[in-house]
TrEMBL record:
<dbReference type="InterPro" id="IPR050833">
    <property type="entry name" value="Poly_Biosynth_Transport"/>
</dbReference>
<feature type="transmembrane region" description="Helical">
    <location>
        <begin position="177"/>
        <end position="198"/>
    </location>
</feature>
<feature type="transmembrane region" description="Helical">
    <location>
        <begin position="20"/>
        <end position="40"/>
    </location>
</feature>
<keyword id="KW-1003">Cell membrane</keyword>
<keyword id="KW-1133">Transmembrane helix</keyword>
<feature type="transmembrane region" description="Helical">
    <location>
        <begin position="204"/>
        <end position="222"/>
    </location>
</feature>
<dbReference type="Pfam" id="PF01943">
    <property type="entry name" value="Polysacc_synt"/>
</dbReference>
<feature type="transmembrane region" description="Helical">
    <location>
        <begin position="472"/>
        <end position="494"/>
    </location>
</feature>
<keyword id="KW-0812">Transmembrane</keyword>
<feature type="transmembrane region" description="Helical">
    <location>
        <begin position="138"/>
        <end position="156"/>
    </location>
</feature>
<feature type="transmembrane region" description="Helical">
    <location>
        <begin position="436"/>
        <end position="451"/>
    </location>
</feature>
<protein>
    <submittedName>
        <fullName>Polysaccharide biosynthesis C-terminal domain-containing protein</fullName>
    </submittedName>
</protein>
<feature type="transmembrane region" description="Helical">
    <location>
        <begin position="102"/>
        <end position="126"/>
    </location>
</feature>
<feature type="transmembrane region" description="Helical">
    <location>
        <begin position="377"/>
        <end position="399"/>
    </location>
</feature>
<keyword id="KW-0472">Membrane</keyword>
<feature type="transmembrane region" description="Helical">
    <location>
        <begin position="254"/>
        <end position="270"/>
    </location>
</feature>
<feature type="transmembrane region" description="Helical">
    <location>
        <begin position="500"/>
        <end position="522"/>
    </location>
</feature>
Length: 545
C-alpha cells in the first residue's frame, strides 16, 4: 500500500489517485445513468411520476447520508494522513477503530430517525406526498450500513490508496442496478404491479449495493493487513490520547465535512421544497406538469451532469490527504504548488467535459430519456453550471485539508443565502430555469470567496494558472464548435427523435471531441505541463510531435 510521500512525487500521487477515483466515479455514474433506459421502458406511462418520486426520495436520502456519516470519512482520511506524515501509524489506526464505533452508532440512530420519521420528512420535503413515505423508509435501511462503508473508504484514502475505493464504488453500482432492474421487471412486467412498489424496491437497492461494497473493502483491508502492521511496528508509539479526545478530534474535523459535502444537496433540497410553490405564483400549471418540470432539471439533467461533477469529487478526495500531509510538515511552498496543480488539473478535465456535454446534449438526452426540447435546454444549461459545482467541491476540500474549516463553512453559508434570496426573482423571470440560475449565482459567490481566501494565505501562481486555463478554454472551444457543427448536420437531415441515430451520433461526437481536444493539448505540450512528463509516452505512441 502506498504511503503518502509529499516530496517530488506528490503530483504523481495526485494524478494516480485521481485516475483511480475518476475511473470509479465515471463508470459508476455512467452505469447509474444507463439503467434509466430499461427502467423507463418498464415503467411505461408511469415513468414521469415514478421518476419524480425516485428523485424526491433520493434527495432526502442524500441529506441523511451525509449527516449520518457526519463527514467522518473525510475527517478520518485527513487525520490518518496527518498522523502518517508524522510517522504515527499506530495512533492513526487507533483513531480509525474509534471512528468505526462511532459510525456504527450513527448508522443505527439516523437510520431509525429516517425510518420512523418518514411521514414528517415527507410533509417537509415532498409537499406531503404520501407516496414518498415507503420510499423514504426503504432508503433508511441503507443508512444503517453506509456509514461503515464510508469510514472504510476514508481509512484507505488516508494512505492515498484509492484503488479499493474506486473498485468498490463501481461494484456497488453494479449490484444496485442489477437488483433494481430485476425487481422493477418482476413487479411491472411480470406481475403488472404498482409503480410505487417498483420505486420502493429500486431505492432499497442502495442497501444491496452498500452491503456488497463493504465486503469488497473488508477483503482489500485484509490483504493490506501485513503492510499496515509493519508500518505500525516501525513507526512512533501510540500517542497518549484517550477516547474522549479522539471523539472530539474526529467531530471537530467532521462537522465541516458534513456541511460542505452536503452543499450541493442543500441547494437541491431547497429547489425541491420551494419549486412547486414558487412556480404556482407565476405559472398556471397542474401538479403533474410541475413534477415534470422539476424532474427535468432536478433529476434527469442532474443525473447526467453529476457524471462530470464526479470528476471533481475524485480530485477532491485525492487532494485532501496530500495537502493534509504537506500541512502537517509545514511545507508552504509545496502547498502552494499543490494547490496550483489541483486547480489546473480540475480545469484541464472539467472545462472540456462540461462544454462537451453541452455540445452532445441532444443525442445524450434522447439516448437516455427520449427527445425533449426543454430537457435538452435544461441539460445544456446544467452542463455549464457543473463547472461551478465541481469547483466548489474541489475548493471546499482544499480549504478543509488546510484546516481553514470555519472560513469554508462561512463562505458556503453566504452563497446559500444568495441562492435563497435569488430563487423567487429568478423563477419569476425565467420560470423553470430559475432554480438553475439562482444556483449558479450562489455557487459563483462561494467559489470566488474561497479562491480569494486561498490565494491570500497561500499565494499560488495565478499567472501560470491563467495562461494554462486560457489554453484549455481555447482548445475546448475549438472542440465545442466542431462537435456542435457535426451535431447540427446529423440532426438537420435525420430529425430529433430516433434513439438509435442518437446513440450513433453520441458515440461519433464524443469520440470526435476527445480526439480534437486530446490532439491539441498534446501538440502544444499543454498536457505535459499539467499532467507531467509521462505524457511524452502518449505523444510517441500517436506520433504527435
Amino acid at each position: 500500500m502506498p504511503v503518502i510521500d509529499p516530496e517530488p512525487s506528490s503530483q504523481d500521487t495526485m494524478l494516480k489517485g485521481s485516475a483511480w477515483m475518476t475511473a470509479g466515479s465515471i463508470f459508476s455514474r455512467i452505469l447509474g445513468a444507463i439503467y434509466i433506459i430499461p427502467w423507463m421502458a418498464w415503467m411505461g406511462s408511469y415513468y414521469p411520476a415514478a421518476n419524480a418520486l425516485f428523485a424526491k426520495g433520493y434527495n432526502i436520502y442524500s441529506l441523511f447520508l451525509i449527516i449520518s456519516t457526519a463527514g467522518i470519512p473525510g475527517a478520518i482520511s485527513k487525520q490518518i494522513s496527518h498522523y502518517n506524515a508524522l510517522d504515527q501509524y499506530s495512533t492513526g489506526n487507533k483513531l480509525f477503530k474509534h471512528g468505526l464505533k462511532i459510525m456504527t452508532f450513527m448508522g443505527v440512530i439516523f437510520g431509525a430517525v429516517m425510518y420512523f420519521g418518514a411521514p414528517i420528512l415527507a410533509a417537509i420535503f415532498t409537499d406531503g406526498d404520501p407516496r414518498s413515505i415507503p420510499v423514504i423508509k426503504s432508503l433508511a435501511v441503507a443508512v444503517l450500513i453506509i456509514p461503515i462503508l464510508s469510514i472504510l473508504r476514508g481509512y484507505l484514502q488516508g494512505y492515498s490508496d484509492m484503488a479499493p475505493s474506486a473498485i468498490s464504488q463501481f461494484i456497488e453500482q453494479i449490484a444496485r442496478v442489477i437488483y433494481m432492474l430485476l425487481a422493477t421487471y418482476v413487479i411491472m412486467i411480470m406481475n403488472k404491479g404498482s409503480y410505487i412498489n417498483a420505486v420502493v424496491q429500486s431505492t432499497f437497492a442502495a442497501f444491496i449495493g452498500a452491503a456488497v461494497a463493504i465486503g469488497i473493502l473488508v477483503l482489500a483491508l485484509l490483504r493490506r493487513l501485513p503492510k499496515l502492521r509493519r508500518l505500525s511496528r516501525n513507526g512512533q508509539p501510540i500517542a497518549d490520547v484517550n477516547e474522549r479526545n479522539f471523539t472530539r478530534e474526529i467531530f471537530e474535523q467532521a462537522v465541516p465535512f458534513i456541511i460542505l459535502d452536503a452543499g450541493i444537496t442543500f441547494f437541491n433540497l431547497f429547489d425541491q421544497s420551494t419549486f412547486n410553490q414558487f412556480m404556482r405564483m407565476f405559472v398556471n400549471a397542474s401538479g403533474a406538469q410541475l413534477d415534470n418540470y422539476y424532474s427535468l432539471f432536478g433529476f434527469q439533467a442532474n443525473k447526467l451532469i453529476m457524471i462530470i461533477v464526479s470528476l471533481s469529487t475524485a480530485m477532491a478526495v485525492t487532494a485532501v490527504p496530500i495537502l493534509s500531509g504537506l500541512y502537517s510538515k509545514g511545507d508552504k511552498d509545496k502547498i502552494e504548488d499543490q494547490i496550483s496543480n489541483t486547480l489546473e488539473l480540475f480545469f484541464f478535465i472539467m472545462i472540456p467535459a462540461s462544454l462537451g456535454m453541452y455540445a452532445v446534449a441532444q443525442p445524450l438526452w434522447t439516448t437516455f430519456y427520449r427527445y425533449d426540447s426543454l430537457g435538452v435546454l435544461m441539460l445544456q444549461f446544467s452542463s455549464i453550471i457543473s463547472i461551478l459545482l465541481g469547483l466548489f467541491t474541489v475548493l471546499s476540500a482544499v480549504l478543509q485539508a488546510l484546516y481553514r474549516n470555519r472560513l469554508a463553512i462561512k463562505y458556503f453559508v453566504y452563497g446559500f443565502i444568495v441562492k435563497i434570496v435569488m430563487q423567487l426573482p429568478m423563477i419569476w423571470l425565467f420560470h423553470e430555469f430559475g432554480p438553475l440560475i439562482a444556483t449558479s449565482i450562489g455557487m459563483a459567490v462561494v467559489c470566488w470567496l474561497m479562491i480569494r481566501e486561498l490565494h491570500a494565505v497561500y499565494p499560488f501562481n495565478t499567472g501560470r494558472i491563467s495562461r494554462r486555463i486560457s489554453g484549455i478554454i481555447l482548445f475546448s472551444l475549438i472542440m465545442f464548435v466542431s462537435v456542435m457543427f457535426v451535431n447540427w448536420v446529423v440532426f438537420h437531415f435525420v430529425g430529433n427523435s430516433d434513439r438509435i441515430i442518437s446513440v450513433v451520433a453520441l458515440m461519433l461526437e464524443a469520440g470526435l471531441g476527445g480526439v480534437i481536444y486530446g490532439y491539441l493539448v498534446l501538440k502544444t505540450s499543454l498536457a505535459d505541463k499539467i499532467l507531467g512528463p509521462r505524457v511524452e509516452r502518449i505523444r510517441r505512441i500517436f506520433n504527435i510531435r
